[in-house]
Amino acid sequence: MVVLNKIYTKTGDAGQTALGNGDRVAKHALRVNAYGTVDETNATVGMARLHATGEMDSHLAMIQNDLFDLGADLCRPDMEKDGEAGYPVLRMSDTQVARLESQIDAMTAKVAPLRSFVLPGGSALAAHLHLCRTVSRRAERLTVELAGAEAVNPAAAKYLNRLSDWFFQASRIANDDGRADVLWIPGANR
């Protein structure tokens, strides 16, 4: 259980932070940028939830929890040393990826195929979901960059890749199952 009885520690005043394994690194380290952007994604999901109800809100709540799992996974390097931690280390799983895929498939079945690119907008919920999509794509890019330099759980990168697709399809659902999508008209303002 997490107990936070003191919010500031002053240990980061010199520009370093602790990873999940206790190592101290610069606050601008690639790993910190990756999980920090996952946290930013989670904040955008919180904003989207202000406009969501029912099943959409339930799915977004699950995603928010997954994003904390993902942050916990990314903040702990040295996967090969997980057994030495003395407690179960939280890692993303392929079942979380599969859940997103199943939900994407269900949403895809409800919307007509696209004949143009979609501009971010339409309903308030759709606009927020597009913001979630773009921030999650940035988190994915940083995680993929991190994976090129250090070991990263493959399920973490897969999850982020599916997540942006989930947000895209969810934005279409939020736009009256795609009927209220704002479509790009190439060269419309020349």
UniProtKB/TrEMBL annotation:
Name of the protein: Corrinoid adenosyltransferase
Intracellular or extracellular location(s): Cytoplasm
The family this protein is said to belong to: Belongs to the Cob(I)alamin adenosyltransferase family.
InterPro entries for this protein: CblAdoTrfase-like (IPR016030), CblAdoTrfase-like_sf (IPR036451), PduO-typ (IPR029499)
Organism: Yoonia vestfoldensis
Keyword Nucleotide-binding among record annotations: yes
Superkingdom of this protein's organism: Bacteria
Reactions it catalyzes: 2 cob(II)yrinate a,c diamide + reduced [electron-transfer flavoprotein] + 2 ATP = 2 adenosylcob(III)yrinate a,c-diamide + 2 triphosphate + oxidized [electron-transfer flavoprotein] + 3 H(+); 2 cob(II)alamin + reduced [electron-transfer flavoprotein] + 2 ATP = 2 adenosylcob(III)alamin + 2 triphosphate + oxidized [electron-transfer flavoprotein] + 3 H(+)
Pfam family name, one: Cob_adeno_trans
A GO term from the CC aspect: cytoplasm
Domain (Cobalamin adenosyltransferase-like) ranges: 7-173
Biological pathway: Cofactor biosynthesis; adenosylcobalamin biosynthesis; adenosylcobalamin from cob(II)yrinate a,c-diamide: step 2/7
Any one Gene Ontology molecular-function term assigned to this protein's record: ATP binding
Sorted UniProt keywords: ATP-binding, Cobalamin biosynthesis, Cytoplasm, Nucleotide-binding, Transferase
Gene Ontology terms describing biological process: cobalamin biosynthetic process
PANTHER family per record: CORRINOID ADENOSYLTRANSFERASE (PTHR12213), CORRINOID ADENOSYLTRANSFERASE MMAB (PTHR12213:SF0)
E.C. no: 2.5.1.17
Principal localisation: cytoplasm
